[in-house]
Structure formats: C-alpha cells, structure tokens
Design goal:
single chain, mainly alpha, 71% helix, Tetraspanin_animals, Tetraspanin, transmembrane helix, transmembrane, Tetraspanin_EC2_sf
Amino acid sequence: MSAVYKDDQEDWLTVCLKYLLFVFNFLFWVGGAAVLGVGVWTLVEKSDYLSLLASSTFVVSAYILIVAGGLVVVTGFLGCCAVIREQKSCLSTYFFCLLLIFLIELVAGVLAYVYYQRLSDELKQHLNQTMTDNYAQPGKEAITLAVDRLQQDFKCCGSNNSHDWMVSVYVSSKQAEDRVVPDSCCKTITPHCGKRDHPSNIYKVEGGCITKLEQFLADHLLVIGAVGIGVACLQVCGMVFTSCLYRRIKMEPY
C-alpha cells in the first residue's frame, strides 16, 4: 500500500507541476506582450526626441526589450509543447531559453539603470548645444522637427530658457527673419510669431525643455525597468517549476 500511495503522490505532484507550468506560460505570454509593447511604445511614441540624445543607450534598451518580448512569445509555445510531451530534452531547451531571456532582460535593465543615473548630466551637457547649433540647419531636418515637437508637446522654449536661442546659429542667421525664438516656442503658432518673446506669446517654463525631457525619459526608463523586473521574476518561477518537473520526469520509470 505504501508503494502505491507513494506512486500516487508522485503522479499528483507531477500533475500539479504541469498545471503550474501551464499557468506560468500564460502569464509568460502576457509578460512577453508587455515587454514587446513597452519596447515598441518607447521607440514609436516619442521617437522624434531620440535624435536629441547624445548616446544610443536609451534606444538600445528599447530594442533589447523588443527582442526579448519576441523570444518570450516563441518560448511560450515551446514551453507548452515541453509540458504536454513531458520530454526531458524539450524541458531542458525550455529552461535554457528562459535563462537566455532572463539574461537579455537583465542587460536591458542594467543599461536602463546606468542611463537613468547619468541622464541629467547628459542632457545638461548636450541638449543646449544640439538645439542652438543644429536647429534649422542644412541636413539637420530630423533635429529641427524634434526640437519643434519638443517645444510644442512640453510647452517649453529653449533648453534652459528662451534666452538660449539668442546665441543660436538660427537666430543669428538671415533665415530667422528677425525672430528671437523659433515659432514653435509660441503658444499659438502663426507665421513669424517668434519675433516677440513676451510671456504672453511664448512658453516661459522654469527649467526649460531640459527639465521636461528629463522627466519624460526618466518615466520611460522606470517603466522599462519595472516591466523588465516583473517579467524576470516571473521567469525565475518558471525556471524553478521547469527544474522540478524535469526532476519528477527523470525519477519516473520508463
């Protein structure tokens, strides 16, 4: 009786592990979709701003998330097959796929954290120069569009304040046509509205566009980190369940 009871108990544990892995795979798919969505959202939602950044760390983190999210979707199918077929080789492959994705997300998380720490310094060092030296210059159309959208979306003018534009290449050129700020600084854009920099006409925001862009990027990095950590924790559970099921199958007689 004790041997029969032990076999029944082992079967019950195996079934429980299989159901747990099925539940995990469902959550894994949801997490993968979230990771993929956050990566795409980061690149698409405010992609114009990326041309204003001095380094590509932010973009690389987003691409890593997209790759990880795609791998999660594929790995989810592999996990279901491994659980249904109860083959040790499939479970081993599934386990190593989880480990690989975990490491990829760990790299993305580290990059996001490192960039978060130096984000403020990078913007202060490079944003003002990027805006004043490249706005409305030949071959710099992407930066020009990014600056215009930045100032309109965040209702700001200049990297630190509107006076930054006084030393810009654009305002000093004939192309400005006596403007003191670009028209995108205006609360209501009309032709040549940038000739008047009174607070009633243009945006006067404390801290300028640097503060606004820094907060925006910091929020994105926090979302990237939160989603990455959440899915990574989920993967650790999946690896534990997979290891347990692998051991149960290995213990069962053929």
